[in-house]
Amino acid sequence: MSNQQFDVIVIGAGPGGYIAAIRAAQLGFKVACIDEWKNSKGGPAPGGTCTNVGCIPSKALLQSSEHYDHASHHFAEHGIGVQGLSLDIAKMIGRKDTVVKQNNDGILFLFKKNKVTFFHGRGAFTKAADGGYEIDVTGDKPATLVGKHIIIATGSNARALPGAPFDEKQILSNDGALAIGEVPKKLGVIGSGVIGLEMGSVWRRLGAEVTILEALPTFLAAVDEQVAKEAQKVLTKQGLKLQLGVKISEVKAGKKGVTVSYADAAGAEQKLEVDKLIISIGRTANTNGLNAEAVGLKLDERGAIVVDDDCKTNLSNVWAIGDVVRGPMLAHKAEEEGVAVAERIAGQHGHVNFNTIPWVIYTSPEIAWVGKTEQALKAEGRPYKAGSFPFIANGRARALGDTTGFVKFIADEKTDEILGVHIIGPMASELISEAVVAMEFKASAEDIARICHAHPSLSEATKEAALAVDKRTLNF
């Protein structure tokens, strides 16, 4: 039986991979996409980490836990009395699993709609071949494919703490953190990044006593300092115990739980005893089983695939995108690279602007930003002006009963071009899109200040923050 020939083969069906496959198919190419992720019944579960154990299930649990938190603590102020409030973790996890499956099935439908041939299994290079590269698919239905262009979109894996491998029962990655069967009395989290804060927030709302240990001396160092300080204050007030500047010496799992030995910021030896421990200290590029050496694919010292600005590897017609290459490990960054690569293969000029990729942390309040932070501009020595507007002065936020936080604009001192927008508050994940559009069009702060925003709306805080750059807010 002859090998199956394709114009484009995508290895990995996460956000970058499945989007790249669909866009390539739209452009007229014969496309295959390979992914080995399985659901609980052994069937295909495309969508990668994001859909299966990342962005999507974490947001489902965050939503459920926020509903519970509102019912427990905030409904009364709206005149809503709740009696006999109960918590069914199994049902909550079940809803999360349903949301995940809906997304899995949606991707399979999109493959069918766009005539992308899907292979359920692991894809690996075997050799360079006439017409491109030979890719072996191992799984329930083994196959050998040949593709003229190969797009590698194999994502990333959770980084384990040395000496504390994941068992997903007591020592948890993001995977295990999304499948805890009952609310732990005490939960430890190592790492105060996006995953640590979101998972810590879920289980804190549901009743766990949560302690987060962070090695860095500053909280959310990548976030604008003013926003980070507000976030630390608010999350601490909510009940998250944040310890910064710690040095972990030992993690020991036993029958009754996990003990973390560490030195605190002052150097004093401490012990933290918890029922479960989530480790969220970053992620590593996933090239396991890709057989990169068979074709001479170049990896860097961290195991990531080396690419140029256009996502080209050292091999002709082999591309790589998303978490497996340089740049922020964000699902939407992978999607944009996937579209850009498909268009480059078609001879078009796909483009990804790293300077306008938004970031979001889905805590409550949400944190979102795009562009430069104030501390980065100070380090560069670039003259700027800044303005902010608090949600407590926003009518819609008052009506929602969620007035925490603010919107902050940073603009060039001379040209007024928007250099960064930073938000902590309700629906920050949605509000940040206006800032992304504005920055893509090189808008000035005054441009946003002079655009009519609906009243009452949270987006008025964006307008007011832009006005604040020129020290002329109207409602504060």
TrEMBL record:
Listed under GO cellular component are: cytoplasm
Q: Which reaction does it catalyse?
A: N(6)-[(R)-dihydrolipoyl]-L-lysyl-[protein] + NAD(+) = N(6)-[(R)-lipoyl]-L-lysyl-[protein] + NADH + H(+)
Broad EC category: oxidoreductase
Q: What intrachain disulfides are recorded?
A: 50-55
Localization per record? Cytoplasm
Where does the chain bind FAD?
59, 123, 154-156, 323, 329-332
Q: How is the cofactor bound?
A: Binds 1 FAD per subunit.
Pfam families annotated for this entry? Pyr_redox_2, Pyr_redox_dim
Binding-site list for NAD(+): 191-198, 214, 282
Under InterPro entries, the record lists: Class-I_Pyr_Nuc-Dis_Oxidored, FAD/NAD-bd_sf, FAD/NAD-binding_dom, FAD/NAD-linked_Rdtase_dimer_sf, Lipoamide_DH, Pyr_nuc-diS_OxRdtase, Pyr_nucl-diS_OxRdtase_dimer
Q: Domain named Pyridine nucleotide-disulphide oxidoreductase dimerisation: which ranges? A: 357-466
Ranges for domain FAD/NAD(P)-binding: 6-338
Under the heading SUPFAM superfamilies, the entry gives:
FAD/NAD(P)-binding domain (SSF51905), FAD/NAD-linked reductases, dimerisation (C-terminal) domain (SSF55424)
Report a single Gene Ontology molecular function: dihydrolipoyl dehydrogenase (NADH) activity
Q: Which family does it belong to?
A: Belongs to the class-I pyridine nucleotide-disulfide oxidoreductase family.
* The name this protein goes by in its record: Dihydrolipoyl dehydrogenase
Q: What is the lineage of its organism?
A: Bacteria, Pseudomonadati, Pseudomonadota, Betaproteobacteria, Burkholderiales
